């Protein structure tokens, strides 16, 4: 088990031990958890003393990671469509042993190298995220001061960021590291019926229904082919009746649904339910909430037979009717 160097800050590091003006080391706690095949586990807390060796305390990197949680139990959360940026702040102590008088040295940065690693932390059957030796190493970088990722680079789940900085000075080296955690959360599907929640139509025109603005926010806009919708309805004048237009109709999310005039009844109100679904998350262990399905509703009122259509519009082609004309 490795423990990082902690610079002496009286207001923060109350457990750093000193002798006169020299830092000896610090006390820290760690938890050991052992799991068995029967899902029983052993858990215990330990306190250890981390000693500072003088040969490792020249040009000591002091690291702070930004936009990332310090503990696996308190990660910073993102969604898949977010840009993810993990920044680092690195300073170098000329000599980490001294409580007073030790200053930060900008010259130390010239001989420093940094290594970034990102691991995926697997969720156990107990639903806890546990760090193990077989955590997946996803990315490995050197000589970078920050990490930036465009949307949809990470799957759902917990991730660990490890930054190790090594400084070599005349045959001696000082190494320090810091780690942090972030979590990528899932979002439910978005269900939207075009045209609002109430509409009045005239039987002679039939009925067009569209849910083209429904989508999966966990995937890019150009990758929505896994999303589909199902339309059903109820005749509000006869809720228990069976009608052809109310039978389930499954379509791709971006395809309009047309109901011809002969299936509509004058002076009748229908409540249509649109359910947007996808099957790709059925076995998702890392999903933070249920993604599919999601529903939206619209009430369609069909005008009575005596109501006059307020206007009719006809479009007639005058020129170039057989040719495609660019706008």
From TrEMBL:
The keyword Iron-sulfur does not apply. This is PKD/REJ-like domain-containing protein. GO terms for cellular component: plasma membrane. It is found in: Membrane. Keywords: Membrane, Repeat, Transmembrane, Transmembrane helix. Residues 107-325 form the PKD/REJ-like domain. Pfam families: REJ (PF02010). GO terms for biological process: calcium ion transport. GO terms for molecular function: monoatomic cation channel activity. The keyword Cytoplasm does not apply. InterPro entries: PKD/REJ-like. It comes from the Eukaryota.
């Amino acid at each position: 088990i490795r423990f990082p160097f902690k610079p002496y800050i009286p207001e923060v590091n109350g457990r750093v031990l000193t002798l006169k003006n020299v830092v000896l080391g610090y006390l820290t706690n760690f938890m050991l958890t052992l799991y068995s095949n029967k899902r029983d586990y052993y858990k215990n807390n330990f306190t250890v003393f981390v000693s500072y060796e003088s040969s490792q305390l020249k040009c000591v990197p002091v690291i702070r990671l930004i936009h990332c949680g310090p503990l696996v139990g308190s990660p910073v959360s993102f969604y898949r469509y977010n840009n993810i940026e993990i920044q680092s702040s690195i300073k170098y102590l000329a000599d980490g042993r001294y409580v007073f008088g030790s200053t930060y040295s900008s010259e130390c940065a010239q001989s420093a190298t940094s290594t970034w690693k990102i691991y995926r932390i697997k969720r156990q059957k107990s639903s806890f995220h546990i760090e193990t030796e077989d955590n997946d190493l996803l990315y490995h970088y050197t000589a970078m001061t920050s990490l930036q990722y465009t949307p949809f680079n990470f799957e759902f789940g917990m991730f660990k960021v490890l930054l190790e900085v090594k400084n070599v000075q005349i045959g001696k080296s000082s190494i320090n590291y810091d780690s942090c955690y972030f979590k990528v959360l899932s979002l439910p599907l978005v269900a939207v019926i075009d045209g609002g929640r109430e509409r009045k139509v005239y039987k002679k025109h039939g009925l067009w229904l569209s849910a083209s603005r429904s989508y999966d926010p966990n995937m890019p806009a150009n990758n929505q082919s896994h999303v589909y919708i199902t339309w059903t309805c109820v005749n509000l004048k006869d809720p228990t009746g069976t009608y052809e237009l109310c039978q389930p109709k499954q379509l791709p999310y971006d395809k309009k649904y047309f109901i011809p005039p002969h299936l509509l009844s004058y002076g009748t109100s229908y409540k249509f339910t649109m359910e947007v679904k996808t099957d790709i998350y059925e076995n998702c262990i890392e999903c933070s909430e249920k993604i599919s399905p999601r529903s939206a509703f619209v009430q369609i009122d069909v005008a009575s037979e005596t109501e006059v259509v307020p206007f009719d519009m006809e479009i007639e082609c005058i020129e170039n009717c057989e040719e495609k004309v660019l706008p």
